[in-house]
Task: inverse folding
């Protein structure tokens, strides 16, 4: 049986009880303090009836309670399931139906209407302070999973229906070890920034779990915005290992430039979750005092698959070399191996890769072959052993590091009585990488404006999913089989942008 993460982390906490473990709201806390808080959470969960294989859902910000919830859940043999409170009520309730949790722990900042909807749906819902023990409650026993599972991450899926990625303790442990073997500058004496949302795999594994695994201190920040607060925390704590998405890098670079500041103490700056704008590289290097290392990951891979190893060997425009123990293949879009080819659809397998989707054998069969190879859905090129991501084979948009599924946005638009058809694609944005744009065919004799449809979307979607632009059209480009050619729409937008810049 693989050593569980809580055993590794627990040993680290006991080995150096008086060392700094995490910083939160202006104060450093020791490993001993986290151990005490975790023990208190464990007692409450046990009294509530939580047992091995049960799933605990959390709608919490990055905070001490989240650390304690994760560790106490693992100590009791359970599975931690972090969700985004801003994912929308309907989507969250669907996800709860899929996960069948023992209980849902929510932050005090979660809207009362959402907490009530969770309770009315039949789930045990308990509000938890961000920096204090969990109140007593009674949970709801459901069918347990294997205690090999550590965490389940949830997404909308390509159809807008919930899709969940289960990762084991072995998956996460391997990814942590692989990162440390690959990026040697990640060391115990470093101070890690934990500002990436911990309900995402990148934030959970690399910002929360990796520092605990390494026994390194971390700076806990509930939200990146406003960026001024994040910058103050970086300066105040001497935080020298910054794990960000490119949008965050852009915000901080602009702030530093406006204030005439430079972060000379930063040792490592790593960005992933979206494509890095290479045109900003000189500005970023000047502002942070070190070049940025671009990486690449997917939730199904726990999540880091590749990253530039260090400043001396980084190749701008690539996401670096694959981590140890990842096997890679290039295939065509039908899944046939490209022998000797330098580009194609990236497939991978290895001990960091999940074995399939949660309670979804059909979806698993679509993305995994019989030998355990996983289709990343990304079209890549190999450049001197490094990976260059050329495009996403799927139509997923990435807006400021968040996945946006066009079908979900299109479904909302199509529910408006004035809309006959809607197609959503991503268009370039200097701030967030991409933003959604909608192409809409009006229903016969219908009258509706762009601003009305955008307001309609705001009422039904998270802010990052809302189209920034709506263009009314009379027809859409179609293939011979009647499929909308999204690539044609994207190409048209790129051409418009080029003409505008000329």
Result:
């Amino acid at each position: 049986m693989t050593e569980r993460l809580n055993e590794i982390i627990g040993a680290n906490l006991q080995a150096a009880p008086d060392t700094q473990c995490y910083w939160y709201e202006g104060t450093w806390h020791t490993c001993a303090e986290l151990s005490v808080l975790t023990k208190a959470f464990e007692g409450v969960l046990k009294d509530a009836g939580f047992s091995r294989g049960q799933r605990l859902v959390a709608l919490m910000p990055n905070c001490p309670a989240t650390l304690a919830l994760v560790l106490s859940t693992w100590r009791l043999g359970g599975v931690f399931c972090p969700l985004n409170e801003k994912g929308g009520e309907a989507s969250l309730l669907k996800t709860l139906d899929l996960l069948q949790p023992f209980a849902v722990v929510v932050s005090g900042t979660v809207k009362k209407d959402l907490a009530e909807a969770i309770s009315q749906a039949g789930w045990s819902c308990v509000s938890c302070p961000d920096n204090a023990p969990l109140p007593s409650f009674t949970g709801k026993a459901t069918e347990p999973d294997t205690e090999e599972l550590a965490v389940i991450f949830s997404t909308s899926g390509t159809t807008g229906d919930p899709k969940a990625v289960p990762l084991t303790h072995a998956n996460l442990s391997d990814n942590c070890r692989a990162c440390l073997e690959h990026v040697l500058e990640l060391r115990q004496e470093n101070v890690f920034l934990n500002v990436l949302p911990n309900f995402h795999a990148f934030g959970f594994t690399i910002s929360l779990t990796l520092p605990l695994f390494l026994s390194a201190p971390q700076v806990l920040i509930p939200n990146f915005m406003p960026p001024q607060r994040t910058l103050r925390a970086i300066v105040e704590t001497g935080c020298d290992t910054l794990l960000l998405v490119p949008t965050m890098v852009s915000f901080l670079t602009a702030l530093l430039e406006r204030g005439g500041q430079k972060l000379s103490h930063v040792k490592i700056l790593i960005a992933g979750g979206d494509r890095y704008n290479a045109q900003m590289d000189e500005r970023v290097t000047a502002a942070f005092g070190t070049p940025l290392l671009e990486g690449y990951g997917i939730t199904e891979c726990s999540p880091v698959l590749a990253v530039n190893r260090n400043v001396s060997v980084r190749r701008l425009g690539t996401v670096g070399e694959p981590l140890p123990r990842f096997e890679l293949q290039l295939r065509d879009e039908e899944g046939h191996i490209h022998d000797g080819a330098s580009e194609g659809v990236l497939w991978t397998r290895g001990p960091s890769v999940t074995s399939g989707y949660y309670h979804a054998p059909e979806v698993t069969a679509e993305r995994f072959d019989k030998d355990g190879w996983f289709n990343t859905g990304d079209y890549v090129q190999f450049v001197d052993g490094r990976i260059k991501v050329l495009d996403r084979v799927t139509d997923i948009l990435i807006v400021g590091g968040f996945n946006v599924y066009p079908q979900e946005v299109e479904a909302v638009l199509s529910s408006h009585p004035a809309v006959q058809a809607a197609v959503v694609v991503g268009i370039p944005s200097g701030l967030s990488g991409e933003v959604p744009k909608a192409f809409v065919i009006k229903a016969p004799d219908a009258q509706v404006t762009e601003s009305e449809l955008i307001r309609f979307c705001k009422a039904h979607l998270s802010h990052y999913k809302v189209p920034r632009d709506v263009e009314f059209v009379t027809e859409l480009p179609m293939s011979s089989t009647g499929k909308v050619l999204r690539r044609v729409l994207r190409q048209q937008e790129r051409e418009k942008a080029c003409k505008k810049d000329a």
Observations:
- The domain at 397-501 is CATH 3.30.300.30 (GMP Synthetase; Chain A, domain 3).
- The chain has a mean pLDDT of 92.
